[in-house]
Amino acid sequence: MTQSIPATKLAPTEPAPTEPAQDEPAQDEPQYPLAPSAVDASVYTDQARYQGELDRILSHAWFPVFPSADVPKPRDYVVWNQLGQSVVIIRLDDGSVSAWHNVCQHRGALLVEGSGRCSNGRFTCPWHGFVYDLEGSVRQVPLRESFDPAQLAGLRAPAVRVVEWSGWIWLTLSDTLPDLLEYLDTIGEELAGYRLDRFDTRFRVSVTLTANWKIVVDAFNETWHVPFTHKSTLSGLVLWRDASLKISSPHSWMTLPIRGFTDKVSNSDHRQTHLCHYLAFPNTIFSCFPNHLQMWTAWPVAPDKTVLNAYQLVGPTPDGLSDAKWEQHNERDWKHFLDVLAEDSEVINNFAALARSKGFRRNIFNTAESRLTAFHDEVAKRLR
Ligand code: FES
Ligand SMILES: [Fe+2]
Known about the structure:
The protein has helices at residues 42-45, 47-56, 149-152, 180-184, 186-192, 213-219, 226-229, 270-273, 323-349, 370-383; strands at 37-40, 63-67, 76-82, 85-91, 97-101, 115-117, 123-124, 131-132, 138-140, 161-165, 168-172, 200-209, 244-248, 251-257, 274-280, 284-288, 292-302, 305-314, 362-365. With 384 residues, it is an alpha+beta fold. The protein has two domains: 27-61 and 185-383, Alpha-Beta Complex (Naphthalene 1,2-dioxygenase Alpha Subunit, Chain A, domain 1), CATH 3.90.380; 66-163, Rieske [2Fe-2S] iron-sulphur domain (Rieske Iron-sulfur Protein). Strands 12-18-17-16-15-14-13 form a seven-stranded antiparallel β-sheet. It starts with 36 loop residues before the first strand and ends with a helix. Residues 1-2, 225, 229-230, 344 line the site of fe (ii) ion (FE2). Its cofactor is Fe cation. Keywords: 2Fe-2S, Iron, Iron-sulfur, Metal-binding, Oxidoreductase.
């Protein structure tokens, strides 16, 4: 659990709804919904299992990969490199976004690096000069007459599904996955209430952690490590004992009261009163306050190595605050987030020394770790 909280300054910017939010939990909804469980240590270490997770889980999920603002104008592009893939994401002249595998269809060279603007609308392969248009189709071939025409017919870098939603470009490597909002389901409905298209991505960081990606996901989906790991940073700020966990398979989420804020705000929408924390299965987390949030994605790079890309998204300046003050709050929140992240990282990175330990036999989850139970059940189900 990582978050920073200017508790008294996070007044909602929207008027209080007069009707209860439809997603408000029933009174008798259990705080910790699932029974205790356990997973074998090999879940985090086995190489074959890791490959299976890449193929059958991470290749069949939607991810937010870049803020839309990273490609503001037609012909702006960025390259996404994760999960052993390289994908060009580019804004077309009609304002839509296209994505295609960054692989030359002649002999597999990398076509594009970094980010920038493709002013002339053409990408030229650095090896033998095949020329691609903005949508990844081959437009020119040197020595064309020397190729088999059938091999060149309709040749293009394979397309990748992308969609823009809530100020972000979302990507999936799957051709068969349902559309984004159907995939996100409850999590999408929850996030829609924040109107994230009004938010700016003000800060970002990338850290490499020496642990399996599921260790990283586990670490951010329960709260009761707060009084130990985050004794001086978080434990006075969130009422971690009162977290209310919700399973919305394959995703999960929770609401968490904020000390000195939740009980003072009169609003029936939990998004305006609580810290709401969402796991968009399998590896993206949104940790949301009414006016700002942090979002991060855990990208596996090896069975024992994970890159965590984290962002702070900031909403419009709340009523009663100057822009300068709001900026100060956001800078302070981000610094606080980095402090909390450093505390989590220290624990997570110590797994490097223990992953092969004969003493690491299984992980046991209590009911307060119901979201971890649900996550591992979902992972196991997809590997069967
Ligand atoms: S590999 Fe790209 S033109 Fe040859
Ligand atoms: Fe934490």
